[in-house]
Amino acid sequence: MVRQPYLKKGTWSHDEDQKLIAYIRKYGIWNWNEMPKFAGLQRSGKSCRLRWMNYLRPNIRRGNFSREEEETIIHLQKTLGNRWSAIAARLPQRTDNDIKNYWNTRLKKRIMGEKKNSSSATTETKSSMEENSSDADSSMMVDILLDYQIPTMDDFPELAVYATFST
DNA sequence: AAGCGGTGCAACCGCTTCTAT
DNA sequence: CATAGAAGCGGTTGCACCGCT
User: Fold this and answer.
1) For chain A, what are the domain ranges?
2) Angle, in degrees to the nearest 10, between helices A135-147 and A67-80
3) Which strand C nucleotides have any atom less than 7 A from protein CB atoms?
């Protein structure tokens, strides 16, 4: 039995963030399992990867989701299901974890509430709602989203320093 | 001011998929 | 083709924070 070295868990400190950023800037991403050792971090590769992908990576937008983003998430969740990474691929600068959290904590509740309301609503209200979100509209929306060109590093020249090791 | 409950988010866990040999 | 290791993914949990009483 090989004793596992002590691996820290829980919230990342500023110092750990800096170490990971500095290491990736210098050497890029080559092997998540080996990297933490060399970066001087007592973290699992998984933990480093998650931290980088969801928080430290450049081009990440955090906080308030716009109305458009909300609608996009709702539409895509409807058509793709809980495939958060696929949904995230259509929402530039948002991470799958962020989208998942946003869905679970806010949108799901809202959708549930709307469903309850619509099931008790008059048929008139229902039909007007259906006009607004017909299947045709939904599939058109999805087509548009699927055609969306995900920005590349070329779109962010000021971040060229990261270009050698993105994704 | 203190206690409490609800909320949101960061991070972990376990499983699946991908890739290299 | 089989296998092992790495990477990716989605569900879930734990905790910090905030507002209310």
Assistant:
1) 14-56, 67-150
2) 100
3) 5-12, 15-16
